[in-house]
Amino acid sequence: MNLPDLTQARKRTKEKVVTELYNTNINARHIGIGKTYYVKTYGCQMNEHDTENLKAMLEEIGFQEVIDVEKADLVLLNTCSIRENAHNKAFGMLGRLKHLKETKKDLIIGVCGCMAQEESVATELLNKHKEVNFVFGTHNLHRLPDLVFEALSKDKKVIEVFSKEGTIVEKIPVKRENSYKAYVNIIYGCDKFCTYCIVPFTRGKQRSRMPKNIINEVKDLVHDGYQEVTLLGQNVNAYGKDLDINYGMEDLLRDVAKTNIPRIRFVTSHPWDFTDKMIDVIKEYPNIMPYIHLPVQSGSNRILKLMGRRYTKEEYITLFDKIRNKIPGCTISTDIIVGFPNETEEDFKETLSLVDYCKFDGAYSFIYSPREGTAAAKLEDKISIDEKEKRLYTLNEHLNKYFLESNKKVLNKIVPVLVEGRNEKGKLFGYTDTFKLINFNGEDNIIGTIVNVKVTDSKTWSLDGEIDG
Ligand code: SAH
Ligand code: SF4
Ligand code: F3S
Questions:
Q1: Residue range 275-289, pLDDT digits in tens
Q2: Which of 16, 44, 72, 314 has its CA 20 to 30 A from that of 416?
């Protein structure tokens, strides 16, 4: 049994990261034959992509996917720790599964992902949740077949969570959700340690994949007809800094662009590591989409300092203006946290004034949630939750006004759209190059292709359009 330790997880070593190849355990190969599985995913794109690996590994050992959780023989929760409500959702689901297990004694329940990396959660799962059969973390996801084998064959609880990252494992099987757009990991972990954030603890130190492994994965996707890749990392701009090969994000973007994949996106960019060279490459290659997610978190220099974000409001604005001026038509979205401990009305007004200046094209806004083990969680906080909720409401009113303004700018224009499928109203939907959601009528045969659509109506969160031509 291996339980995580937060103190260990916080430490960073200079040790070189080793890359190894995924290896299927022969023992486990047939253990799932005749059985079904269901995976529930919480959290960010990284977790969604991890789930694509988890599903493929389960299928390799014989399990088949079902869409109704009640019909599954094995249920796996891929969890997220970023805020309290993500925690609550996962524990709520566990309550439901415990109930299900009372009538279905053979049900196997697994918990993985970022919550499993938390010392207190792993201990609670061990001591208080008899219904859980196996637990593993983000650092040993590739061990799933072995862990399922152990849980099934030895009939005992299996807990294997490592506090520290190990090797980078290449060629883990993947069952992609989609046959035209794909996620590709480029860098794991995070070394920024923003004071409110748990990710550096749950995902370990910053580790870049070798460029050739990334490029080869993208080339395979091009070969299979994929139209779009999203390069993933908690801070993609730090790509390459941990490799001694003098190769950074701008080099990677250029090499990925040269594979001729029609669309390239990347998330998330930390303003600190965003270089002029990157801006030049994004501008130079038409297949790098003119859309950047650039989280600001706050507009108050006092709060930015307490958050450990490493830039001032003025530096953020300089970068923001540079991107807008150098890359024509580029849209920019952001993340904002309200109610960081002792955020004053003045601090909050600074955030609103930054929003009024930047007029973001999109944004995610959150109320600060204290996370165990982080530096900010130790700060005393005098601001009431009512006050924080009011601020979130006010912030969203400002943000929404600018989303609509941004969407109105493309009214009557013709925009390129990767068609993703049908919405619940039966219309086709997809995203523009600038990451605007658009709905329109059309035939099924264009799903998975890029088409030109004329914008006929602009709303706050989406556009309506009609196919051009
Ligand atoms: N690596 C990305 C963010 C990953 S988490 C970056 O640095 O931009 C996604 C967003 O969740 C963050 O941008 C932040 O706005 C929010 N977030 C992170 N920790 C939080 C916390 N403790 N409470 C509230 N929101 C949080
Ligand atoms: Fe968290 Fe900051 Fe790292 Fe983003 S950069 S994952 S907010 S510590
Ligand atoms: Fe959540 Fe882990 Fe992603 S905490 S946001 S699933 S990296």
A1: 999 999 999 999 999
A2: 44
User: Would you state the pLDDT for residue 1?
Assistant: 77
Q: What is the pLDDT of residues 42-93, one digit of tens each?
A: 999 999 999 999 999 999 999 999 999 999 999 999 999 999 999 999 999 9
Helix (H, G, I), strand (E, B) or coil at 81: coil
18 CB neighbour count, 10 Å cutoff: 10
Six token digits for residue 202: 């749950």
Task: Give yes or no for residue 80 CB within 6 A of ligand 3.
Answer: yes
- Among all ligands shown, which has an atom nearest to the Cα of 84? 1
Q: What atom in ligand 1 is closest to the CA of residue 336?
A: 15
Does the CB atom of residue 191 touch ligand 1 within 6 A? Answer: no
pLDDT tens digit string along 308-329?
999 999 999 999 999 999 999 9
Q: Best mutation site among 39, 82, 117 for ligand 3, i.e. most ligand atoms within 8 A of its Cβ?
A: 82
- Hey, what are 414's tokens? 């013709």
In 3-state terms, what secondary structure has residue 362? strand
Q: Which of 211, 167, 157, 178 is nearest to 1 (CA)?
A: 157
Q: Which residue has the tokens 């996707």?
A: 221
**DSSP readout, 293-327?**
E---B-S-HHHHHHHT-S--HHHHHHHHHHHHHHS
Which helix (H) or strand (E) is 464 found in, with range?
strand 463-467
Find the residues whose C-beta lies inside 6 A of ligand 2: 190, 192-194, 197, 199-200, 234-235, 270
Q: Provide the angle, in degrees to the nearest 10, between the axes of the packed helices 313-326 and 276-284.
A: 20
Residue ID of nearest Cα to ligand 2 atom 4: 234
Closest by CA to 47, choosing from 137, 108, 164, is: 137
User: How many residues are present in the chain?
Assistant: 469
Any atom of ligand 1 within 6 Å of the Cβ of 333: no
What number does the ligand 2 atom closest to the CA of 203 have?
6
Cβ atoms of 313 and 357 closer than 8 Å: no
Instruction: Find the DSSP H helices in 259-413.
Output: 276-284, 301-307, 313-326, 345-358, 385-408
Gap from CA of 42 to ligand 3 centroid (Å): 8
Q: Which atom of ligand 1 is nearest to the CA of 197?
A: 19
CA 73 – CA 79 distance, rounded (Å):
19
Taking the C-alpha atoms of residue 429 and residue 418, their distance in angstroms, rounded to an integer, is: 8
Cα distances from 198 to residues 6, 9, 79, 114, 351, in angstroms, run 10, 10, 13, 9, 23
Q: Residues 121, 123, 126, CA angle at the centre, nearest 5°?
A: 110
